[in-house]
Amino acid sequence: MTLSIKELIVEAERCVACGLCLPHCPTYKKTGSEADSPRGRIQLMRAVAQDILPNNARFNAHIDLCLNCRSCETACPNSVNYGALVDTSRALFMQKKSAWLTLAKLFIRHRYLANALIWPIWLAQQCKLSSILKQLSPAAKLLPVLDMPVAWKSLYATTSPKKGAVSLFLGCASSALDSQTLKASIYVLNKLGFDVHIPTQQTCCGSIARQMGDVAESNKLVALNQRSFDPNMPILTVASGCGAGLNDYLADYKIQDISAFLVTCDWTDAPIEPLSERIFVQDPCTLKNVQKSHLAVYALLKKIPNADISALAGNSQCCGGAGAYILTQSEMADSLLNDKLTAIKASKVVILATSNIGCSLHIANGLREQNLVVSVLHPLQIIAKQMGYQAA
Ligand code: SF4
Ligand code: SF4
User: Fold this and answer.
1) What counts of helices (H) and strands (E) characterise the chain?
2) Whose CA is nearest to atom 5 of ligand 1?
3) N- or C-end of the chain: fewer Cβ atoms within 10 A?
4) Candidates 3.30.1050, 3.30.70, 1.10.3470, 3.40.50; correct CATH number of 278-386?
């Protein structure tokens, strides 16, 4: 939600400076600076909005370092809407402008352009030329081994007895970099008797534009999605970052994380093969603190006979994979990632389930760099495989 400047001041004044949010803030834990804490940032945002402090580089640095993980919101006894405060401050005071951002926006808004970019990357990977990609851009180190870009159909009809219909939100990053999760999701939904609609005009959820302070662009993307989806049909997201963004800005639509939807379905006629493995779950901040449906992931995976489902230690702290943050605040992102890798090593994790593409790319990259062999998978990929789905 984006506020007016007057609303920002009113919301910021609701903070009673009790400090209960401080121990929950990852950036405060790392820097120990009040200005990198939720309480400090709220005071800074209010002071800049009231022209008490200048909107200068120091202010920008403290707000930029915020992950928008919204861990502080869940701890706040006064329910201060921190997410709205930081979104508004970025929109009002910190619009980022650069040629590469303009280009990135074009690719994000038009999926066919993103696909056009993915084809040469996929080909380069097929020809074992990934090292050249890494020299061209530091972002390339995050790339997983890609599948051939998919031309999604508008409808995947169920062949099981029909129980309903849903829309699937592709997400710009998931459709480009994680088509296996989307295919696995369609497979499971079809098996359970749901037709899966994929509106062709859908676009990015707008979260990355919002992170960059570009509220006009994010509003355009929200409006495009508004026109694309049927408000009466459940809209399922596989990436919790997208789900959180859509929930905040398309509140009248039935947006739900796919695991939260699936645990409410009838599974009587859907056999699941046992899996005698321990599966650790990493809770993405957007699923836990914004959508508040992280427990559905555990409930879903517990449907797999013999599987032992455990929470990854330190789950309450963000992994640092907060969208463009991985690139713009790489030092803090890497420091938070190291804490995750330490937890993964300590628990000897073999399978890690996570429901957010940003977390998945960031953690998988850290594991690769330390030569650690861990399967980082979306929960839908894990359960689909036990239901007979074979990755193409
Ligand atoms: S959103 Fe996260 S990083 Fe930002 S102030 Fe709140 S707890 Fe700290
Ligand atoms: S917990 Fe809420 S009221 Fe207390 S300092 Fe943090 S934001 Fe302010």
Assistant:
1) 21, 9
2) 38
3) C
4) 3.40.50
Residue with the smallest CA separation from ligand 2 atom 1 is: 76
The count of other CB atoms within 10 Å of the CB of residue 214 is 22
Beta strands (DSSP E) in 98-254 are 155-156, 164-169, 194-197, 235-237
Q: What ranges do the domains of the chain cover?
A: 5-93, 278-386
Distance CA 97, CA 247 (A): 26
Report H helices in 263-329: 285, 295-301, 325-328
Q: Is the CB of 18 under 6 A from ligand 2?
A: yes
The answer to whether the pTM exceeds 0.85 is: yes
Of all helices (H) and strands (E), which one includes residue 351? strand 351-354
Q: How far apart are CA 143 and CA 32, in angstroms?
A: 33
**Is residue 322 in contact with ligand 1, taking CB distance under 6 Å?**
no
Q: Are strands 278-282 and 375-377 parallel, antiparallel or unpaired?
A: unpaired
Query: Hey, what CATH class is 5-93 in?
Result: mainly alpha
Cα 290–Cα 288–Cα 61 angle in degrees, nearest 5:
65
Q: What atom of ligand 2 comes closest to residue 82's alpha carbon? A: 7
pLDDT at residue 267, rounded to an integer:
96
Give the integer Cα–Cα distance in Å for 112 and 162.
32
pLDDT in tens, 236-293: 999 999 999 898 788 889 999 999 999 999 999 999 999 999 999 999 999 999 999 9
Residue type, 63: I
Residue ranges in the chain whose pLDDT is less than 70: 96-117, 120, 122, 124-125, 128-140
Please name which ligand lies nearest the alpha carbon of 20. Answer: 2
Q: How far apart are CA 174 and CA 154, in angstroms?
A: 17
- Say how far apart CA 245 and CA 206 lie, in whole Å: 7
Instruction: Encode 226-251: b = buried (16+ Cβ within 10 Å), e = exposed.
Output: eebbeeebbbbbbbbbbbbbbbbbbe
